[in-house]
Amino acid sequence: MTSKILDEEFIQQRKQINGIVQELYDLSHSIGYQDLQATIKDLMERINEPFMFVIVGEVKAGKSSFINALLDTDREICKVAPSPMTDTIQQIVYGEEEKVIEISPYLKRITQPVDILKEIAIVDTPGTNTIIAHHQEITEKFIPASDLIIFVFEAKNPYRQSAWDFFDYIHGDWRKKIIFVLQQKDLMSPEDLAINEEGVRKYAKEKGIAKPLVFSVSAKQELEGQKDISGFKNIRHYIAEHITGGKAPILKLQSNIQTALSLLQKISDAMRLRKKQWQTDKAFREDIQHTLDEQERKSQ
Length: 300
Prior knowledge:
By secondary structure, the protein is of the alpha/beta class. The chain is about 55% helix and about 15% strand.
């Protein structure tokens, strides 16, 4: 499953770098360099941070089904129900056991023991018709750190004002990577779907996206095993090539490598200083011993 949405080469490179940084941590611990230990621990956490996907869309657009289909696990990551379940922001992350933690009246952290969540964290937002009440928490806490924002529209009507109002807010302030998804494409004819795809591109271009990316999918078809026609193959390919793979995560790793090299230099400098101090202390002790020996010889 990971090969569909994650870059295996990147995962292996990150694993190797993490091992090297762990050795740095062990070395700093063994020489008692406490100030550096906290910095190295922070670096390890940054290296292992999952990619963050923020999912935005109106109630009834099929966001929860979309998330479940995209992550392609044998568990229901997002609960799907006839009535809207998401009246708060839900941060869905990896955890050893499934539990819900109330962070604030508007935010829940949900942990689940699903391996894909080690690599991709999901922020599932309320429907955009109610989202404006929470936009500050979403934009300040999650948008700046997000790797991808996915706007999910109901394929039959991707023109509702509330969704595009929130798009204006996010795109105007943050200019993050954004893709558009028309969900429930199985309910439309190919001709009508093509018209709405072009309509979304037109809206997005008018709002400043030079080359808007629009994907039409059917979570129902994907979850029922009709993977060749569900549309998820294209969106996963894009994510693997441009978000979880490609240049961006490699540049992030390179930055972490440079940080690790800087930390190694600090450890080397500290060890050289300690060696110099030891040599100075040794010479001082030898000088004292020589003086004592001379005094003893003269007293005889």
